[in-house]
Design brief:
Length: 659
């Protein structure tokens, strides 16, 4: 079989592809900011991969067909395209970090900066918490996709040159084989480790190769308008479906990534021979402009969101308190984050991207490579200096460093060990097979047996419950982001575990009390009401534990800054108001309607005026929480002891405090 010649014509500009870029970056932003319920917005990155593969490969194959392809010139174009905006972002974040970041935060940032500078941040974050993990708040987390792309483009041109030299008539076949090998690798790997499949270049290469296959002309030509409309609408619908109905809890990428990738390929392929309805919509000028700045917008939006959530600025909680009930929760945050991201993206596009690509700063040859290497070396040196000096602790007082130390990952690990993460407390990514029912649900015939059921908020108080009461065996079944209610519609570990407890364990095992605790929200109360009715019907005694005060940033960071800047009121300004409202409705449901014991952590930690305790031990500088809404092991012990001192457990089936 003889392959058709490679396309020689240089790719014409297509405004619809810029519009498609806009859809991709907007979906990613919507997912990260948390607006419009775009639960699958992360597939925008996959759309970017297909677009990139198509555009870059079209240029490369045209140059190969014309016998003028140069690997050096290819890398030169990549540097000119990627580096200016990226290094400008690094520079701004480096200055910000040196001034504001606490030692552990600065060390984490410097490690990620080093990895991102060397285009290996995907491997770095692979070794950290997963991409969808709420604990992963790195300012440069989003650079994983740039690293994957750069690794692909470092190796792919070399692969093409080798194939062109050894098998000149088998270029398409070689790309097709590589595509299916990568797709198979992704499908197998995601079943073993979602994080590995998410970050590895070999599991993502097929997405870029989807665009490559398009550029090789494997897509049939659509001459008629109706066929272009049909295919483009189908493709756009596939992307939209993935954005709206995919979720972080599914197996992804693997075969599930085919939907948005093939959808993107259909939209691009339909526009090769002419316009369509989708083409005209995507070519709308606002979409095209967002597509032009999409790279800078992608770069800036994530750091803006993360800095906003750090607690250095207090506009979020202030707005919520000032306008409580008049606006949807977090709407002000969303508007501000998107607005700031757009402004910074436009500035980056105008003053970083454009001058180096088309303007007076368009360097070439050795000068460009030398400049890029010199700037990269500066960031490597900065990272090394920070890591070697343990985060430049001299910038802060000892009184600041004590609460700041609770931001260290070592503290998180100690909390997780105390909470039995991985056996009796699961993250959604673990899978139900990790749960040790034989260990976590063992009843003791010589003691009262209580089951603590709930999410990560429940896991946070389990060590304190276990140590605070004598003659009590507190069993534990906790799944993060999984409220302890009887009805769960979405398949996954949460539904599996809760179904087992309510349908199998509780009906067949008598216990002295079921303790329910969660990150209670208003929309959970009807489900809790139904659960309490079920418990009454099945004669299961229930104790409900209420809310904790919540903040818009990690409390450990807030109290550290409050000490450093001598602003004792700072943490209080960042406390959110919704927890008090939820507590009020929760108390009414549990105590007034069902006449059940209600343990109010909120009353134990906050006075009637709304002033809340922020330290588990003020003299030792130990904060109640490491993050924004989970009690750490010291905070949990403090809070549970306060509830005991207030006599809240007296009505809870005569549980006695430990001596």
């Amino acid at each position: 079989m003889v392959e058709t010649p490679l396309p020689k014509r240089t790719l014409d500009y297509r405004p619809d592809i810029d519009g498609l870029r806009a859809i991709a970056v907007l979906s990613v932003m919507a997912f990260h900011v948390g607006v419009f319920h775009i639960s699958g917005g992360f597939v925008g990155v996959d759309v970017f991969f297909v677009i990139s593969g198509y555009l870059i490969s079209s240029i490369v194959f045209a140059e190969i067909a014309q016998s003028r392809f140069s690997i050096v010139a290819f890398y030169e174009r990549r540097i000119r395209r990627i580096f200016p905006a990226l290094l400008a972002l690094f520079f701004v974040l480096t200055i910000f970090g040196a001034v504001f970041l606490l030692p552990s935060d600065l060390i984490d940032f410097s490690k990620s900066l080093l990895a991102a500078t060397l285009s290996v941040s995907n491997f770095y974050f692979w070794g950290q918490a997963g991409y969808f993990d709420h604990r992963n708040s790195s300012l440069l987390l989003h650079t994983w996709s740039l690293a994957v792309e750069e690794q692909f483009y470092i190796l792919f041109p070399i692969f093409l040159v080798i194939v062109r030299r050894l098998f000149p008539r088998r270029m398409r076949l070689a790309v097709i084989i590589l595509f299916f090998v990568s797709l198979a690798g992704s499908a197998v790997t995601v079943a073993i480790s979602r994080d590995t499949a998410f970050y590895m270049p070999y599991t993502r290469a097929w997405e870029l190769l989807t665009g490559t296959l398009l550029s090789l002309g494997v897509f049939p030509k659509l001459q008629s308008v109706w066929s272009r409309n049909l295919v483009a609408l189908l493709g756009f619908g596939m992307i939209l479906y993935a954005c709206l109905f995919y979720s972080p809890f599914m197996l992804f990428p693997g075969l599930s990534a085919l939907l948005p990738c093939i959808g993107c390929a259909l939209v691009i392929g339909a526009g090769v021979e002419g316009r369509s309805i989708v083409y005209s919509v995507l070519a709308w000028r606002p979409f095209v402009f967002l597509g032009l700045i999409s790279y800078s917008l992608y770069l800036w939006h994530w750091p803006v969101i993360m800095v906003y959530r750090m607690g250095i600025f207090d506009v979020s909680a202030w707005f919520e308190r000032a306008y409580a009930g008049r606006f949807a929760p977090d709407r002000f945050d969303h508007v501000l984050q998107v607005g700031i991201s757009l402004i910074l993206a436009i500035l980056s596009w105008r003053f970083a991207e454009q001058p180096f690509r088309k303007g007076r700063l368009r360097f070439a040859g050795p000068k460009l490579f030398a400049l890029a290497a010199a700037v990269m070396l500066c960031f490597v040196a900065f990272s090394g200096a920070v890591i070697g000096s343990d985060g430049w602790k001299a910038r802060f007082s000892q009184a600041t460093l004590r609460p700041a130390s609770f931001l260290d990952k070592s503290e998180l690990l100690r909390d997780e060990q105390a909470q039995r993460l991985g056996s009796c407390f699961l993250e959604p990514s673990f899978g139900v097979m990790s749960f040790d029912y034989n260990h976590c649900l063992v009843r003791n015939p010589s003691q009262k047996n209580y089951l603590l059921l709930g999410d990560s908020h429940a896991a946070a108080i389990w060590p304190a419950l276990k140590s605070s009461f004598s003659g009590v065996n507190v069993m534990q079944v906790n799944v993060a982001a999984c409220p302890p209610v009887i009805r769960h519609d979405e398949p996954g570990p949460c539904k599996t575990v809760m179904d087992h407890i309510f349908q199998n364990y509780l009906p067949s095992n008598r216990i002295d009390g079921l303790i329910l605790e969660a990150d209670w929200l208003m929309n959970l109360l009807p489900a809790l009401d139904e659960t309490l009715a079920w418990a009454r019907q099945h004669q299961v005694p229930v104790i409900v534990v209420g809310c904790v005060p919540e903040y818009d940033a990690p409390l450990a960071r807030l109290v550290a800054y409050s000490v450093q800047w001598n602003k004792p009121e700072l943490p209080g300004r960042h406390r959110l108001g919704r927890d008090a409202q939820v507590e009020q409705h929760l108390r009414a449901l549990v105590r007034d309607k069902w006449h059940l014991p209600f343990i109010s952590l909120y009353d134990a930690l906050c006075d009637p005026a709304g002033r809340c305790v922020e330290f588990a031990n003020a003299q030792q500088g130990i904060p109640l929480m490491d993050d924004s809404h989970h009690l750490n092991r010291f905070g949990a012990q403090f809070a549970i002891q306060r509830t005991i001192d207030l006599g809240q457990w007296n009505q809870a089936l005569a549980i006695q405090p430990a001596k």
